[in-house]
Amino acid sequence: MDGGRWPLAWIAAYDVTNDDEYLELEQGIFSELTKAWGTRCGGGLPWNPESSYVNAITNELFLSVAAHLANRVSSPPAHLKEMDT
């Protein structure tokens, strides 16, 4: 799942511009990625939505996105909190 590459690009754009819109884009993608967590292996993200294959790169991207986001945002915006309920 290359979806983990886009949030890292939005983080880089945010770091250059300080435009919160980039962080919001990243948070939205991250929220969608979290919905895919939990495979037959007990965790991790599948390589793509149609597969049950879990690989290291997909999960490394996910963890990197989570760490980058945690370093920049203290709490998610209200519209993303609503998505999780």
Automatic annotation (TrEMBL):
<dbReference type="InterPro" id="IPR005198">
    <property type="entry name" value="Glyco_hydro_76"/>
</dbReference>
<protein>
    <submittedName>
        <fullName>Uncharacterized protein</fullName>
    </submittedName>
</protein>
<dbReference type="GO" id="GO:0005975">
    <property type="term" value="P:carbohydrate metabolic process"/>
</dbReference>
<dbReference type="InterPro" id="IPR008928">
    <property type="entry name" value="6-hairpin_glycosidase_sf"/>
</dbReference>
<dbReference type="InterPro" id="IPR053169">
    <property type="entry name" value="MUG_Protein"/>
</dbReference>
<dbReference type="Pfam" id="PF03663">
    <property type="entry name" value="Glyco_hydro_76"/>
</dbReference>
